[in-house]
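2024-03-11 09:14:02 DEBUG pipeline.ingest accepted 1 chain
2024-03-11 09:14:02 DEBUG pipeline.ingest length=170
2024-03-11 09:14:03 DEBUG pipeline.predict start
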Amino acid sequence: MASLMEDLLEVLHTEDEEYQKLIALSEKKTEALVSADVQNIQEIAQQEQDIVEVIQRCEKKCDEVIQDMGIVLGRDMQEITVAGLIDMLEKQPEEQKKLQEAYDNLLATARLMKTSNEKNKLLVDQALEMVEFDLTLFRSLRTAPETANYSKDATSASPVKGTGRFDQKQ
């Protein structure tokens, strides 16, 4: 059981480190979103995808370790959680403390990640609203009514006429 506990602590620590890397990238992404640097956003997205793959492997390894712990403890894997393991380790305070710290660190990192993602989501939503506003503005300019725009010879003298850049027939 001791080696399984070490494996679990190692996996939780690695997962926390990978989430820390994601947070750093998320901060860079915020800067790229603010400056509308599409190329940088694409590069960051690829880096994030690589880190997410590592995190998924960590989660799979964590599930395997918990499943092995379940076998040793005679419990179903579905019943075992990290918080439950912390409670089970009350007779081993040193191991309990290590697991509690790893768990708390991972939760704190996850909260930071969530906050950063929410901030970036807000920036993306605002950028989309601006694009939508611009498109609506262009459409309205193209289809502006031709009222009260007459020349000296009483013909229509609309300043906005002709075709726009966008082909609406597609």
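2024-03-11 09:14:41 DEBUG pipeline.report The two ends are 64 Å apart (CA to CA).
2024-03-11 09:14:41 DEBUG pipeline.predict end
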